[in-house]
Amino acid sequence: MAKVWVVPEVQDQKLKKISLEMITLARRLGDVEAVLIGEGVSPVAAELGNYGVGKVIVADHADLKTYTAATYGRVLSDLIRRDQPEIVLIGNTATGRDLAPRVAQRVDAGQISDVIDYRDNLFIRPIYAGKAFQQVTAVAYPLIVTVRPNVFKAAEPIGGGAAPIVETATVSLTGDDLRVIVRDVVRQVTGRPELTEAEIIVSGGRGMKGADGFLILEALANVLGAAVGASRAAVDAGWRPHQEQVGQTGKTVSPTLYIAAGISGAIQHLAGMSGSKVIVAINKDSEANIFKAADYGIVGDLFEVIPLLTEEFQRALAWNSEQAG
Amino acid sequence: MKIAVLLKQTFDTEDRIIVKDGVVVPEGVTYIINPYDELALEAALQIKEKAGKGEVVLFSAGGAKVQEALRKALAMGADRAVRIDTEGLIADEGIVAAALAEALKPGGFDLILCGWRAIDDGSAQVAIRVAELLDLPQLNVVTKLEIEGNKALAWREIDGGSEILEAPLPVLVTTQRGLNEPRYPNMKGIMQAKKKELKTIPAGSLVPVGLKAKVQNGDTFLPKAKTAGKVYKSDPAAAVQALVAALREEAKVI
Asked: Nearest residue of A to residue B19 by CA position?
């Protein structure tokens, strides 16, 4: 069996969801081992045993407190050279996209980016921002694969919770590895999930009419625990920040539910959100292109529809939790 | 300040993708400069203008058609261009990066700028691989960039926020939307561009002997055609009720 490494992402000493999603794919590819990199990440190692990870290599060092491509890249590529796994899975997240090509080049490996499926020994990845898909195969190993968040089901714990073998790696960073200095890290404190990881996204376009229009969308997002997205038109108008743009020149998202309000459905926008499992469109214009991409649609004035929708979701979710309780 | 800009020619974002026999059909397609690379070029031009001196050199790997993109970029204000001719080359990102790095080496650039990804294959590897090959630090997915003396200060997009990085020159920077608004070439620029140097180097002379592609593309295919969705046109209250019921009972997403 192939030796498959997963590089989990850890935030506040917790495994991020993408880590468990990568384990799901890794189990299909071979024997799963993990490389934990950071400062104070050692306690997470034991937890990985619950998910069928046989061995965890821990690189815990003060210089790894804040991620940089050079430091994490040094640690990971040294370990790959030493232990020669066939496949290394890294999240296709902001961090993973930064780290993976640096490591791939350093260990002279091929890389397949933004993988969404694996069938018949072929990796599947979207191209043209999801307008088409490409099958890719490795012709040499090691192979680095970055895995799109929200696509693979998160691994469930395996009964018994076998403790993995934990090995502590020696970390030796040189001056060159420390050339990039992280001056500051600013996290947005909206309390909402990240766009690329969110299960539900509520997005607005030109039809929102202004920055204030988005207040009703934010209220809806709060009820659903959703992230807020925007079309290029809304971003270009300055109503929302660039980071929230969904589309070919913005973020590519794959939530379970995508609600598009006042978005006409330009091909660029569709490219960024067509990977969503269920798409809902709300638009005044019944001819809007977005309805062709949507599973469900409401033709109507969004300023009337969205507040009603917020109330209805609130009722439905209250009903859900009553049933669960 | 010597600045290199890595530039890729891509399909127009608005174009429909047509696939035949597992391959994207290139005919009838409009070609553009990868929009993220235009941000890199604009940043390079602004840095040069602010410094009042320096040189902006374009590098692009591709077939003869890429010259159109390079001419446009020269018209925007770049000083000269190098095309790495990849005709007949079986390449993956590692090979393209190796060719680019080899072409960049003699230039002694202080700054290498490139879009953070290309909108066609979206693999986001080549620029970072070039940084590794040239042993440069990387500032990736940058929305704001300041060059002060011998160091670069960059605001980089991360999941759920941003971070501010500092690195010494030379450095490789990849650009993200929000950084600037790329200029359009004007008539004077278009006329001048015709006289600017556009050199072609065969990729074979740059790629190290024995270096082979490590990943191989199989078939390309299109997503399944979407069946028409349910559209509610009734009064808003009834429509909302029907929608939420459908999302719960039929689609089972809430």
From this structure: A132
- Whether residues B229 and B142 share a domain: the answer is no
Query: In the A/B pair of chains, how many CB contacts fall below 8 A?
Result: 264
**Binding site per annotation, positions of A:** 206, 231-232, 245-249, 262-269, 283
**Closest residue to A109, CB basis, from B127, B143, B214:** B214
User: Per residue in B112-150, pLDDT tens?
Assistant: 999 999 999 999 999 999 999 999 999 999 999 999 999
Task: Return the SS3 of A256.
Answer: coil
Bridge partner list, A87: A4, A143
The alpha carbon of A209 is separated from its chain's Cα centroid by a whole number of angstroms, namely 30
> Nearest-CA distance from A52 to chain B in Å?
27
Could you tell me which residues come within 8 angstroms of residue A154 by beta carbon, excluding any fewer than 6 positions away? A17, A20, A21, A24
Let me know if residue B218 belongs to a domain: no
Same domain, yes or no, for B232 and B186? no
Q: Estimate to the nearest angstrom the gap between the alpha carbon of B132 and the chain centroid.
A: 18
**Residues 177-216 (B) with a CB less than 8 A from some CB of A:** 177-178, 212-216
Amino acid in position A252: T
Beta strands A87-91 and A3-7 are parallel
Q: What is the pLDDT of residue A160?
A: 58
B119/A312 Cβ within 8 A = no
B176 and B84 in a common domain: yes
Percent of chain A with pLDDT over 90: 81
Query: Model confidence over B9-40: pLDDT tens digits?
Result: 999 877 888 999 999 998 889 999 999 999 99
> Same structural domain for residues B250 and B140?
no
Residue with tokens 């004007």: B186
Q: For chain B, how big is the Rg over CA atoms in Å? A: 22
Residues in B touching A300 (Cβ below 8 Å): 233, 236, 239
Contact residues, chain A, for B254 at CB < 8 Å: 200, 224, 257, 313, 316-317, 320
Alpha helices by DSSP H, chain B: 35-51, 66-76, 93-104, 126-133, 187-193, 236-249
Does the domain at residues A195-324 carry the CATH identifier 3.40.50.1220? Answer: yes
Q: Which among B72, B68, B57, B50 has a CA at the least distance from the CA of B180?
A: B50
Residues of chain A contacting residue B32, judged by C-beta atoms under 8 Å apart: none
The structural domains of chain A, with segments of one domain joined by +, span 2-168, 195-324
Taking contacts as CB-CB distances below 8 angstroms, the residues of chain B near A179 are 137, 167-168
Same fold, A2-168 and A195-324: yes
What is the least distance, in Å, from the CA of A322 to any CA of chain B? 14
Q: Are residues B147 and B232 in the same domain?
A: no
For range B72-99, the mean pLDDT: 97
Q: Which of B138, B159, B232 to mutate to test the interface with A (most CBs of A within 10 A)?
A: B159
- Domain A2-168: top CATH class: alpha beta
Chain A residues near residue B159 by CB distance under 8 angstroms: 93-95, 194, 196-197
How many separate domains does chain B show?
2
